[in-house]
Amino acid sequence: MSDQGHTPQWRHDDPPVFGTWRRWYAVVVAELIVIMIAAYLLTEAYR
Amino acid sequence: MSWIDWTVLLLTLGTLVSWGIWKGRGSRDVRGFLLADRGMPWYAVALSIMATQASAITFTSTPGQAYADGLRFVQYYFGLPIAMVILCVTVVPLFHRLGVYTAYEFLENRFDLKTRTLTSLMFLLQRGLGAGMTIYAPSLLLSVLMGWDIRWTSAGIGGAIILIMATGGVKAVNWADVQLFAVIMFGMMVAFVATFMALPDDITVSEAFSVAGVAGRMNAIDLTFDLEDRYTLWSGLIGGLFIALAYFGTDQSQVQRYLTGASVTQSRLGLLFNGMAKVPMQFFILLIGVMVFVVYQFERPPVFFNPVEVERVRSGEFREMFESAEASFAQAHEGQQRAYREYLEAERAGDADAAVDAAILIEQWKTAKSSARESATAAIVRTNPKADPSDTNYVFLTFVLNYLPVGLIGLLFACVFAASLTSSSGELSALATASIVDFYRRHWRPEASDREVLKASRWFMAGWGLYAIFFSQYAVRLGSLIEAVNIIGSLFYGTLLGIFLLAFFVKWVGGTAVFWSAFVGEAAVFACFFWTDISWLWYNVIGCGAVVASAVVIQVFLPRPNEVQ
Prior knowledge:
Chain A contains one helix and no strands. Chain A is an all-alpha fold. Chain A has one domain. Chain B is built from 24 helices and no strands. Chain B has helices spanning 3-23, 30-35, 42-53, 56-69, 79-89, 91-98, 103-110, 113-146, 150-168, 170-198, 205-214, 233-250, 252-259, 264-298, 307-314, 319-349, 352-383, 392-403, 408-444, 450-472, 481-505, 511-531, 537-556, 561-564. In chain B, helix 5 packs parallel to helix 12, helix 12 crosses helix 21 (481-505) and helix 16 runs antiparallel to helix 17 (352-383). The chains are: A mainly alpha, B mainly alpha. Chains A and B meet through helix 1 of A and helix 5, helix 6, helix 7, helix 11 and helix 14 of B.
């Protein structure tokens, strides 16, 4: 059954180019947080 | 537009189209035609994903959106990077491992044929409407530029897209995307610089932001929680996450982009790059709109930005009403401009009280301008009851025509048309793929040879192209196209996402429960659409929640899937 996709298994069998996938994901989320903070400061500065 | 602009426009478009067709000439079998032989490097996947979204609608309508409503639309994109991470962990490796052509093939393995067919049909329905609006945007621009009938311009643009698709397939779209995207971004940067050049000499960049701020256009973050407020941090993070998960995880037009990745790694990197670049890119495009707004606080804008409708009202019976509104608008604009200068003077002198007084004056003149605009719009609608009362989509076009140097105007319009070609062909390609794999080969001609399927693919692309051209004729009166296209998507995405979530995470729910829950989800979303003021971003959450909840309840009354087997 699982081979047909009934119970998907999340695998990380392809190595990332640099570092680990977790590090990549953390970078994406961290960038979002920085942008949100910057946008908030911009909003407050010109309110 | 001058002959130089026309030459630049035609040369740019001609080169891109021929190059795309030449690059795609090797696609002969179905796998190569539809999935580009799964050989795309990550940067091609990433740029292709971004360029597919960066449609003509984005580039014509997004600056206009910021002009009218400020930066707050950027919050809509905050859920996207999180969605990219979730999809990289879950969907990408799964789809690659299963070797599927469409996201909906997976649903038949997991549930049954009827669920797959229904889901694919929902995709075809909403994406077909979306493709119509994608074609409508540049057709409208061409119609305004040339004064031609919209029916002819949309037929021309639709025909060009069909030609590219029928001769090249996905390879032509993907590889042309990369070049187009570079041209588009260059064009937007030129427009950004042009906004600063168009500011009065005595206004600094910081003062320009102050003007935007006092006019309420620097509203990038809104922390209030209100379901009826369209764009807040919460609707962006939560609703935006759901819509991005649905769009990139279940919409074939996007899934097909990263299925062309050479490996899981290439697809993942493509999506993550999109996650990192999308928000800054949209912020930048919205900022251009805000700067255009500031320019038009010092340079008098037209009272209504759609020149075709203005021309019509001037030669109609409501001419006097329109011209009177125009005069009031001009007077209010002069007053508001003086108030802005008083505000800036007060800021420079550090006089807070004078700044507050000036800000109150600015608000009063703004009300006077709005009232004059309403009167002008009323004259336009009385002259032509079919006219769109919103002119948001024409703001950026008007700015480009009036403020950019000769030659660059042609280049930017080439960007708009190129963006339209790439996103429309991406959409048509996805529509054809879903039609072939989920209907033609599954229901009608299972024994069809690759040659027959390839031929049918081309026919489906042409058919969907015609459907899109047909719908584009009716895509009037929708206001801001960037909002309209997302609202149409949101009517279906919540349900689609709910179905896929059930497929991935709730093993004990079977096809029949999911099939009927899809109707419950759609009923919930359409009820919100017709009878409530809930912001469209929340439709994705509501639809998804209704599908998951109702499927679980329905399944309780049905035999478990493994018991049936």
